[in-house]
Design goal:
The chain has 547 residues and is an alpha/beta fold. Helices cover 33% and strands 25% of the residues. The protein folds into three domains: 180 residues, Alpha-D-Glucose-1,6-Bisphosphate, subunit A, domain 3 (Alpha-D-Glucose-1,6-Bisphosphate, Chain A, domain 3, 3-Layer(aba) Sandwich); 227 residues, Alpha-D-Glucose-1,6-Bisphosphate, subunit A, domain 3 (Alpha-D-Glucose-1,6-Bisphosphate, Chain A, domain 3, 3-Layer(aba) Sandwich); 134 residues, TATA-Binding Protein. Bound molecules: alpha-D-glucose-1-phosphate-6-vanadate (VG1) and cobalt (II) ion. The site of alpha-D-glucose-1-phosphate-6-vanadate has 18 residues, from loops.
């Protein structure tokens, strides 16, 4: 064991955000940088001696080296056992499943999720607690506080562990168990869904394209969709995790997953398309329209899964409630109302769902950012969402487009879009938000282009379970006709600031459900640009990504 001195500068002033700490690989490779985070983390974990830690990542560049660093430091801190995914691989939802399944003390997940990877890309680390969910703010704040004051870290001098060989080895006194990264997760999925029905669907000639975007979803999709469910070989594409994700941006939306959209477009398109992100906690669902891909809005996906939940074995008895992040459309609220169950509105980030799930207050959760999940783990879960859709498709015999259109006909369509202004100047973005906040008191009751403002505020949330309070979670403008505009700054980017503008309008006229979202939302887009003076503050006339 060694106690080594940390260089003086790393980590200073950089707070782990909603999903851990994400920085450029070059930042993470600075001597002592990762060690500083891990030491600050371990210092705050009481009673971790002798306990089990789960460890894995999305396979991006620096993953393997970081696994060895964490292993050595875990040994020096007296952990009894580390369960590490073979090759250092564990998707975020699989890590959550393994933590829960094995009663682990917690888990370290090495991922920058949907951020690009490779030597020029991003790296990240996050900590999950014993319920399998992201560490709550009091833990991440503690990590940050300690990271500012510590000057030394404790590590082992032992040689690297062979993480490609299944089975138990030892690093000093600590057992290192290299596990199959898919096995526990696949077993859990079999408890959730009707695998027989989905198997019959594929046996009947149903065709799917699962694009794992060269990220960590691949091994899971291969083993479950092609393996256990018998989909033909070749159903899963880009299915081997690559250190740089093959230069793809593993953020599944119609812009970044354009190849999937192209394959879902034409006459030869398969019946069903899906994609997952860097750490496989996000999902995109794509159907086949009339010669065109039919991408399902994530907010609609959450609502539709909730409306069909009883078709799925795990949720056969009904769902207790739904939770959605504030910017996510209110489509799920309509389903909750019809089902007579509560729908909770939380700040952005999966950690806010943890208490509600632990208390059994909600069963399904979702975010507009292609994240959907349930009480089966404490993270959003991309492969789970894809299997949920497959289960519904098998049970109803309908197509993705038919299901979505029927949903809109029954509940109304929550036309939705998110406009991202990426990499803008941070000072300009802060000024924009400050100016918006200053306008809020005067907005209520005003008429904007014929729409009356019902409420304008900066979203605040009090957790109904533990009473913790979070403020300044995004500026929202709610109109009397149900339309909404939300503005917030991203907490996951690594370059400058990213302004997100979320737009939503309710369309109950079935005859207008086919109008493209950007067209239907044009009046709101215009209001948003004017109210926030986006061009004046950012210099941008157009968003960089529209989803
Ligand atoms: C984004 C999404 C948010 C999601 C978070 C983590 O955060 O908007 O909904 O929970 O990413 O997702 P932000 O602060 O950039 O808007 V993942 O798949 O990157 O862990
Ligand atoms: Co992710």
């Amino acid at each position: 064991m060694s106690i080594l001195t940390l260089p003086t500068t790393p980590f200073a002033g950089q707070k782990p955000g909603t999903s851990g700490l994400r920085k450029k690989v070059s930042v993470f490779m600075q001597p002592g940088y990762l060690e500083n985070f891990v030491q600050a983390l371990f210092d705050g974990l009481e009673g971790c001696a002798g306990q089990t830690l789960v460890l894995g990542g999305d396979g991006r560049f620096h993953n393997r080296a970081a696994v060895q660093t964490v292993l050595r430091m875990a040994a020096a801190h007296g952990f009894g056992r580390v369960l590490v995914g073979r090759g250092g691989i564990l998707s975020t939802p699989a890590a959550s499943a393994v933590i829960r399944q094995h009663g682990a003390y917690g888990g370290v997940v090495l991922s920058a999720s949907h951020n690009p990877g490779g030597p020029e890309g991003d790296f990240g680390i996050k900590y999950n607690i014993a319920n399998g969910g992201p560490a709550p703010e009091k833990i991440t704040d503690g990590i940050f506080a300690r990271s500012q004051t510590i000057s030394r870290y404790r590590t082992s001098d032992a040689p690297p562990v062979d993480i490609d060989r299944l089975g138990t080895q030892h690093l000093e006194q600590m057992a290192v168990e290299v596990i199959d990264p898919v096995a526990d997760y696949a077993a859990l999925m079999q408890q959730c869904f009707d695998f027989d029905a989905i198997r019959r669907l594929f046996a009947g000639g149903f065709r799917m394209r699962f694009d794992a975007m060269n990220a960590v979803g691949g091994p899971y999709a291969h083993a479950i969709v092609e393996g256990l469910l018998g989909a033909p070989a070749g159903t899963v594409v880009n299915g081997t995790p690559l250190e740089d994700f093959g230069h793809l941006h593993p953020d599944p939306n119609p812009v970044n997953a354009e190849d999937l959209i192209a394959h879902m477009s034409g006459p030869e398109a398969p019946d069903f398309g899906a994609a997952t992100d860097g750490d496989a906690d996000r999902n995109m669902i794509v159907g086949r329209g009339a010669g065109e891909a039919f991408a399902v809005a994530p907010s609609d996906s959450l609502a539709l899964l909730a409306a069909h939940a009883t078709l799925v074995p795990r949720y056969r008895g009904g769902i207790a409630g739904i939770a959605r992040s504030m910017p996510t459309s209110t489509a799920a609220d309509r389903v909750a109302r019809a089902l007579g169950i509560p729908c909770h509105e939380t700040p952005t980030g999966w950690k806010f769902f943890g208490n509600l799930l632990d208390a059994g207050a909600v069963t399904l959760c979702g975010e507009e950012s292609y994240g959907t999940g349930s009480e089966h783990v404490r993270e959003k879960d991309g492969v789970w969402a894809v299997l949920f859709w497959l289960n519904i498709l098998a049970a109803t015999g309908q197509s993705v487009q038919q299901l979505v259109q029927a949903h809109w006909a029954r509940f109304g369509r929550n036309v939705y879009s998110r406009h991202d202004y990426e990499g803008v100047d941070s000072a300009g973005a802060d000024a924009l938000m400050a100016a918006l906040r200053a306008q809020l008191p005067a907005l209520a009751g005003q008429l904007l282009d014929g729409r009356r403002v019902k409420l304008a505020d900066d979203f605040a949330y009090t957790d109904p379970i533990d009473g913790s309070h979070s403020e300044r979670q995004g500026v929202r403008i709610l109109f009397e006709d149900g339309a909404r505009i939300v503005f917030r700054l991203s907490g996951t980017g690594t370059e400058g600031a990213t302004l997100r503008v979320y737009l939503e309008a309710i369309e109950t006229d079935v005859g207008r459900h086919g109008v493209p979202a950007q067209q239907a939302l044009a009046p709101l887009i215009d209001i948003a640009q004017r109210l926030a003076r986006i061009e004046a503050h950012t210099g941008r006339t157009q968003p960089s990504v529209v989803t």
